[in-house]
Amino acid sequence: MKVVLLEWISGSGCYCENHTQNPMQELLDEAWEMAASLAKFFVEAGHETQFVLEESIASARAAALLEASDVGQTITIETTPYLQELQSTTNLQSVLDTWRSIARQNDLAVVIAPELDGILESCIGWLNENGIRTWNCFSDFLSAACDKWKFAEMLEATSFPDGGESRIAPQALQQTGTLLHPPTHLHSDLTPEWLQFCRAHFASQEFVIKPRFGVGCLDLYVTDSPECFTVSSSEEFIVQPLVDGPSFGCNAIVRPNEEWCWISQTRQVLHESSVTLAEYAQAHRTLEYSRSEPADMPISQQSLRAFEQALGFGALGWIGTDWVRDADGRCWLIECNARCTSSVVALQPQAQARLIDFLSKLA
What we know:
Elements: E1 2-7, H1 24-44, E2 48-54, H2 60-68, E3 75-80, H3 89-103, E4 108-112, H4 119-129, H5 139-145, H6 148-159, E5 185-186, H7 192-201, E6 207-211, E7 221-223, E8 237-241, E9 247-254, E10 260-270, H8 277-285, E11 289-294, H9 301-310, E12 317-325, E13 331-337, H10 349-359
Parallel strand pairs: 1-2, 1-4, 2-3
Antiparallel strand pairs: 5-8, 6-7, 6-8, 9-10, 9-12, 10-11, 12-13
Helix pairs in contact: 6-9
């Protein structure tokens, strides 16, 4: 089967002209490595694979990353025109038109794009509307995964069918197999009652503030006084009590018949010890992690099954979830990414084998 990887940052959607001195270089490096890793798995699964790369950054650096994956000779690099004004609707449409043209020459398209400003939903929706088969989430699942506030509301409806009263005794939740997710509130609408509840039930006494729509750790803040925190942009932000403990990820791939296959459960190991979420965010955004290793506290199968049902119809392709294990050994679901993430770079050999086996059966 012919597969094309459409990655937003390196495929025309996001570009910085002087990228050797621009902080966007970190994102470009991550994007290239992620795309090269995923391309490798598709090739090893027996698929002819194409990777779309913006022509202005089709450099020796990008080629070297693809060749380092040992399948550089079997991956076609399709260059796309340089688009100078990133924010204009015209240029978003230009990217989508170019991607559609390329995707029509393939049997399957895989979109990797940020949730910010509805980019991921726009890319997938446009391709699907034009008859392109994508290996991506869609419908209700995609909408919920791209909106952290909606995501929290849907998880709450699943985990607390009594309207939320069971939250008053969070210590009992793990015993019932309930899917744990931190209470979530819009920053613009915080109430003293909600803050008092969180401070009474979460030991850290700190809160995480992050964009409602967004990606990564670039705008993530930790504070003990969210009610006094001034958000410096017009974006909507959400607030959650900080769940302190080791962070780890769990990746799944989903078949068109909605069959879920959980392929890995790992935690990133940083070069330097990071004991707070803020330090972890800083390390992550500068790519200061070296490897992954198996998480030492498995998520219960009951929790995974509950998550599979929580966001509704439309799960397909790669889905990444982020978790934290607290001091009592309970696993809390923090976020969901309805797309491939940088964790694909550091999959364990067993997870790689499972992924390749799954991809070989896509046709």
